[in-house]
Amino acid sequence: MKLSQGLLFWQEVGEGIPIVFLHGAWHDSSQWVGVMKLLSQHFHCFAPDLLGFGESENPNIHHSIDLQVECLRELLQALKLEKVYLVGNSLGGWIAASYTLKYPEEVYGLVLLAPEGVRVEGEEKFWQKRQRLFNYSQFMVKLLRLLSPVLKLFGWNEKITEDLQLRKTLLEYPTACNLLFNRQQAEIKAELLDNYLGKISVPTLILQGGKDIKNNIDKSNIYARFIPQSNLKIIAHVGDILPDTCSSLVAEDIQDFVKENWL
């Protein structure tokens, strides 16, 4: 569909109560296919590619969380969805929570999976490393590869290989990089939700993998601590990317949450 900022693609299946799924930073809407198939008998499921991701257009504009919120709202209005449940993973969780803060009357409830959008200890170094890798010049990459035999002697080769693989992933998702760490820090900080979570007024379920990295677990705990009507569920045996690694459990939790909170 052509929106004011560009073409937006979405996947849709089922009928009934509308649920909108927002993908994570290093994914597109296909991340939710397995979950949506399981829920489609009971719910009307929508999963857009966020602007700048997947099949959606990547216009030459300055990306922000608020821009993603407004694109999502324009899509939902075009689809005549006046009120929905929002489900967001990682970056999608940040966007879903921001949408709910801005348009609370349009959201029945939230399901957030390892959501971004708050800062925890060690977060700055985490993103600074990714910013350096993302902005490496081709000369630097070629130099590291040329020096690979020498680096191997010092035991650094494995780490360099891992970093270059991470850089490859980052380059595949430039919009995610811009949203998460490659903008002015003051701008990113202004969109963080640390001081606003207490204003989220809808029922919220937070799903978190117990074997995920500490930063992500800490963020989920912050969301659960400050959102008034929230419940945190730790899925002990899994790590990150919950929609991919345990789609049946995620689908079951979403179904139970929606049925419990359906008005």
Automatic annotation (TrEMBL):
It comes from the Bacteria. GO terms for molecular function: hydrolase activity. Signal peptide: none annotated. Residues 18-241 form the AB hydrolase-1 domain. It holds the Pfam family Abhydrolase_1. Keywords: Hydrolase. This is Alpha/beta hydrolase fold protein.
